[in-house]
Amino acid sequence: MVHAETWAELALERLRRESGRSGTARREVVELLGRHDCCVSALELHDALRARGSRVGIASVYRTLEGLDRSGLVERVDLGDGIARFEPARGDEHHHHHFLCDDCGKVEPFADPALEAALERLAGGSGFAVDAHDVVLRGACGDCRAPVT
Amino acid sequence: MVHAETWAELALERLRRESGRSGTARREVVELLGRHDCCVSALELHDALRARGSRVGIASVYRTLEGLDRSGLVERVDLGDGIARFEPARGDEHHHHHFLCDDCGKVEPFADPALEAALERLAGGSGFAVDAHDVVLRGACGDCRAPVT
DNA sequence: CCAGCCGATGAGAACGGGTATCATTATCGC
DNA sequence: GCGATAATGATACCCGTTCTCATCGGCTGG
User: Most buried one in A33, A133, B3, B87, CB count within 10 A?
Assistant: First the structure.
């Protein structure tokens, strides 16, 4: 990239270009989300912002996330618990999937070239135009699998 | 298997053993679900049963599905649209994942040994005790990818 | 076969994440 | 600054799922 811009700066500029306006809520949400590597829920973002004194409404959080999603700036992650999570889309080199601990709810990212290759081949050989894929592994994490002595 | 029992018969017997009772609603739900190869939602099951004159309540549908899930008799499938779907767990030879068309909502099952192998290896090499995995491919199906001339 | 116990059931209320509405606020071009 | 208009925040609403509770009905001891 020519400019050493952060994801947050890129995202804000992109959103701004689409409507011609900017706003405080949007900026706060994007900047906070930009500090995350892995998925966060809308409520977590909202709570964190309110906790630091922001007055953003939950609606603005969702609106911002929707806009980012429309522009492909975030990945929408569904871990199967009915809560939508989001993470900055930083490109292939950061592409990853998630492990979810059924016991403590911990989320752990992982990446695997062989898995991606298999998915790639699958997408190519199918009759579909695949443009996204989700993989979620579920089980017990290191802490939770330990014998409860 | 020694007895040529259907999945529905096995499931009903298992549920019965756990509580010592049986009931009409449960039987209707299990028998209908047993006729499906791929995922169905609770509402779809409920609607189908009511349409044929059954008086089952939606709560019984959910209760039955929860019991089946606890016993590992169904797979819970999450396609990311906020609706929980279920399909009979018939063992490894029927194991599959899903393609979801973003346009028309069509769901298509698929199976791929290489994908399973990659997931298997991943699960083994991680610090987690993985006991389930979900894979969802999203995009446009054959019908929807056609050029809109 | 009958009575009674207790799990199963169904109706509807409650819950919760996500969306829609709307009056107000704040940004941008002038 | 001024006006047009997008952005914002509070809140009502939607809908899938869960909870509650009075009732029903299958099972067991007699």
Answer: A33
- State the sign of the Cα–Cα–Cα–Cα dihedral B32, A80, A45, A13: negative
Most B CBs within 10 Å: which of A134, A136, A148, as the mutation test of the B interface?
A: A134
Which residue on chain A is closest to B122 by alpha carbon? A112
A48 touches strand D (CB under 7 A): no
Measured from Cα to the C1' atom, the residue closest to D25 is B23
Q: Using an 8 Å Cβ cutoff, are B30 and B11 in contact?
A: yes
- Separation CA B77–CA B90 (nearest Å): 14
Considering only CA atoms, which residue is closest to the C1' of nucleotide C10?
B57
CA distance A4 to B137: 33
One-letter amino acid of B18: E
What's the token pair of residue B19?
Answer: 């509580």
Q: Which residue has the higher pLDDT, A124 or B2?
A: A124
Which domains occur in chain A, in start order? 1-92 (1.10.10.10), 96-149 (3.30.1490.190)
Chain A hits for B128, CB-CB cut-off 8 Å, are 99, 101, 108, 137, 139-142, 145
pLDDT digits (tens, 9 = 90+) for B92-105: 999 999 999 988 88
Query: Which one of A110, A117, A128 has the shortest CB-CB distance to B99?
Result: A128
| Packing angle, helices A42-51 and A24-34, rounded to 10 | 110
The candidate with the shortest Cα–Cα distance to A86, out of A100, A74, A68, is: A74
Beta-strand pair A97-101/A107-110: antiparallel
